[in-house]
Amino acid sequence: MAVDTIYAVGLRDVQVYPITDLSTPTYGSGVDMPAAATMEVSGTFSEVIAEGDDVIVTQHALPNGAEWTLEASTGLSLPVLEVLLGGTASDSGSTPNEVSYWDFTGDNEVPWFGFIGKAIDSETGGDTHCQVFKAKVTSGPGGAFAYNSFKPINWSGRALGGPYTGSPIFRVLNHETATDIPASWPDADPYTSS
Does the model's pTM come out above 0.85? Predict the structure, then answer.
């Protein structure tokens, strides 16, 4: 049975995966983004327009990537920062004075990573996943400490296709049966519940 339409509601989960080798590509294990609140992925296009006789005669558009945003309602995760912005989290001290920290420096090389988000289907018990294959942060982590509210954390960036002609930029998967986001990056084939 084809699953043509899913009535997606909410954002149940987001996992981010470091890309450890761009040539293959090879991904590390997924890291959960705590308190995932929003995920948006929008395709971008190169466009050429031919004009003449005071009108647009024709146009051509070719997909060239995607722009994306992720937001957590709270919960600044150091492992997520490592995946999205590079660097290494560290620990110092001992209980009850332990400190975990991550430094953002000019030496950080902002890495490539993949991510997958999941929304449940309001009608059938299935779900929709959006899988972004090669993303890089261009802004974030943003958010403000504010009176009487949790600190939201947001990032935005750009996604490109993989190293091969025809490599997907992102994929939408409609599952007839709700499926967990895999702990390891799925291979090139669409994945299902196990």
Answer: yes
